[in-house]
Amino acid sequence: MRVIIVGGVAGGASAAARIRRLDERAQITIYERTGFVSYANCGLPYFVGGVITDRNELSLQTPESFWQRFRVDVRVRHEVIEIRPEQKTVVVRNLMTGETLEDRYDKLLLSPGAKPTRLNMSGIDNGKIFTLRTVEDTLKIHRFVREQRPKSAAVIGGGFIGVEMAENLSQLGMKVTVIEYSDHLMAPLDFDMACAVHAQMRRRGIELKLSTSVTGFETKGGSVVIHTASGEEMVADMVLLAVGVTPDTDLAKRAGLALGLRNSIVVNDRMETSVPDIYAVGDAVEVKHFVTGKKALIALAGPANKQGRIAADNICGGNSVFDGAQGSSVLKLFDMTVASTGINEAQAKQAEIDYDRIVLSPASHAGYYPGGKTMTMKVLYERNTLKLLGAQIIGQEGTDKRIDVIATAIRAGMQATELAELDLAYAPPYSSAKDPVNMAGYMIENIVTGKVKQFHHDEIDAILRDGSVTLIDTRTSGEYSEGHADGFINVPLDELRERMIAIPKDRPVYIMCQSGLRSYLACRILSQNGYNCFHFSGGYRFYAMVKEGKKQAETTYPCGMDRRQ
What dotted CATH number matches 335-448? Predict the structure, then answer.
C-alpha cells in the first residue's frame, strides 16, 4: 500500500507514525512545503520571546529522524499543486528546483492546516508586517526583532496567537498595543470572564484597543502607521497580524472535494472526504462540535493529532471514528492561566440552548496552606437535562487541572450535579477537601433543588432601587468600606440573625458578598425564615472586575482617547 500525506505537521505527522506502527510494509511519503516537519506550532511565540532558545527544539522530528525511526520518506520544500483522483496521482513541485513530478497513491491524506487570515487592505505588504504560522515565519520575526530592535509593536487580533505574541513581545521590552475588532479578547471566553484577561494585560503595560477596526497601513519615517475606521492613527515599529486562520483548502477545492464551513473540507466520522481513498484531518476540516452536535471549525493541535490517528487506523483497514471536538484549551498569560472547554454563553444562545450558569471564586488549594491563589470559574449547563455545556476558568496554579476534569466530565456525558460526586485527589498543597470542581457541583445542586436562587452581574442594573426590594452586602464593614455595589446596605453575615427583624418580609432580598459563599449562607438563613432571597453569583470580587471592564469599554472612544470629565 502506497500512502501519500500532504502536510507534515500535527495531523499528518501523527498519521504517518500511526500507519507505520500498523503496517510495516506500507510505503509512506510526506510532502511538506515548508522546510520543517512535525514542528510545534504552539511553541512559536515562545521562540520569538526567548523562552525557547534553541530553534531545533521547535521540531519534534526531522526528515532524517523520521526515516530512521519510521521509514517514512519526508520531502520538505515540496508542494503538492494538483490532485488527480481519477488517476490516483498527485503533482508535486520541488520548491528548491522548480521541477515537478507525478506520484501515485493508494490512499491520500490531506493535512494542509489553516493559513493566517490576510487583510485585504492598503499597505499590507509592508516588510514590517508579519504573520505567524510556520517555523520560517518565526525565524523571520526573531531575526527582525534581534537586528532591528523595535521599541513598539502592534498586534492585530486578540486570539491565542495574538495574546501569546503580545506577552512575549512585551517581555522583550517593547511597548505593545493589541487591536481587536470585538469588544473582548479570547473568543472562547465570555466578556465577563475576559475582563480578567484585559486587566492582566493592562497591569503589564499592554494597551488594548477593543472594538477597533483596522482599515489600512502605510510607512512613515521607518515605522508602520495603522489606520482605523474611527480615524485614529497608531504607529508601531512592527505589526503582527493575528486576526484568525482560514482553512487552507485551495488544493482540495481544485480536486473537487466537497467543502463546508468557510471552505473547510467535509469529512465523515472516519475522516474520509467526498472522494474515495482521500482522507483529511486537522485545521482544514469541518468537524462536529461534541457539545452542540453542530458543524464547527476547531483549530487546535489536540483534535488534529486525534484525527490523524483515526485516519491512519481507517487507511490500514480499521474502523475508528472521531465523535467530535469540544475545543478544550489553555493559555499562559504572564502568571495567569486562562482555560476553557465546551461552549460559552454566546454559543449557547446561538444554539438556542436553555442554559444556566454559575460563577465561583475558589482557592487553588487549602486556605490554611500558604500560597493559595483565587481562581474564577464559570460553568454552564442545560436547565432541563443538567447536561454540562462548558466551563471557563481563570487563575494561576491548578487552573489547568480543573478545566481538564470538567472537560472529561463533559466527554463522559455527566450531569452538572454529578461534579459534586467526583472523587478527586486532595492534599493541602494541591487542593481542598472540597475541590473547586466539587464546589461547582454543590452550587448547581443547590440551584436545581431550589435551596437557593441566584442573580448575575448582567441583571443587577435592572433591579429596582425604589424600595420595592432589599439589597444587602454581607461582607464585613471593612470590606464594604473598600467598595460596594450601588444601593446595597451592609449587614455582615455574623450579624444577620440579630438584625433580621429590620428586613421587610414582603419584598425580595438580593444579597452579595465577596465570593458567593456568605451570600449563599445568608440566603439559607433568610429563606428558612420566610424571605424570598437571591444570592449574587460570583460575589463582589467578580462584580467589580466586570464593572471595571465595562467602564473601560464605555469610557474609551473607539480611537482609544479617554473622555475628559
Answer: 3.50.50.60
